[in-house]
Amino acid sequence: MVVQPKTPQEKKRLSYEKDRRNTYGANSKASRKSIPLAKARANRSERHTQNHVLAIAVGVENGDALAAVENLVRSTEPRDWRKFPDTSLGEVLDRKANK
C-alpha cells in the first residue's frame, strides 16, 4: 500500500480541523488543577450523600428496611461533572476574522 504525501493545503485543512484551542476564558494551564479538582469534588459529593443515607440506617435490623436503604444508596444521583473539548482551531480563527 502506497501512501500519498499530503499537500501543504491538505495539511493546513487537517490542522484547522484537528488542532484545538482553549476558549473557556481561564488560563490554559489552570485545567491541570481544575479538572482533577472538579472530579474529586463530584466524587466527594456522591460519597457524602451515600454515607449520609447509610448513617441513618445504622441501627436498623429489619431486613426490609436494610433492602430499602441499599436501594437508596444505589439510587443516589451519580456525579454529573463532565469535561468538554476545546474549540477547533478553524472555529477560533473564523470567530477572530468575523470580529
Number of strands: 2
Stretches where pLDDT is under 50 for at least 5 consecutive residues are: none
Helix fraction, binned, reads 55-70%
Order of helices and strands: HEHHEH
Major sheet details: 2 strands, antiparallel
Strand order of the largest sheet: 1-2
What would you note in describing this structure?
Helix content is about 60%, strand content about 5%. It has about 100 residues and is mostly helical. A two-stranded antiparallel ribbon has the order 1-2. The longest helix has 26 residues, at about 30-55. The chain is elongated and about 75 Å long. The two termini are about 45 Å apart.
Short description:
The protein contains 4 helices and 2 strands. It is mainly α and 99 residues long. Strands 1-2 form a two-stranded antiparallel ribbon.
Sum up the structure in keywords.
99 residues; mainly alpha; two-stranded antiparallel sheet; 4 helices
Topology, please?
Elements: H1 8-18, E1 20-21, H2 31-56, H3 63-74, E2 87-88, H4 89-98
Antiparallel strand pairs: 1-2
Helix pairs in contact: 2-3
